[in-house]
Amino acid sequence: MKTLPSHVAPYKKTPKFDETSIPKGLLKAHQTKEGVWGKIVVLEGRLRYKMTEPEEEIILNDGIFGVVEPTLFHEVEPIGRVKFYVEFYR
Fold first, then answer.
1. In angstroms, rounded to a whole number, what is the distance separating the alpha carbons of residues 35 and 29?
2. What is the average pLDDT across 18-35?
3. Tally of CA atoms within 13 A in the half-sphere of 89 that contains its CB
4. For the chain, how many structural domains are there in total?
5. Which of 7, 9, 13, 47 is the most buried (most CB within 10 A)?
6. Looking at the domain assignment, is residue 3 inside a domain?
């Protein structure tokens, strides 16, 4: 799994989402802006994290977080019940 670069710092965090409140935009391919990294933090359950460029898929849980690289397309999919948030870095 990729890691966040040491030179970035958090600046924003989404509310907590669950399987019923995930914004539709996160469920389809989307990207962050240039220079913006993301960290997908699962609090409960499991979340499928798909990167479409390059193609990769990881199952996230409370011990495995997802790293979103700037401008790379990605999406998430709940696997049953889940609670998570996304933290943004630059």
1. 18
2. 97
3. 17
4. 1
5. 47
6. no
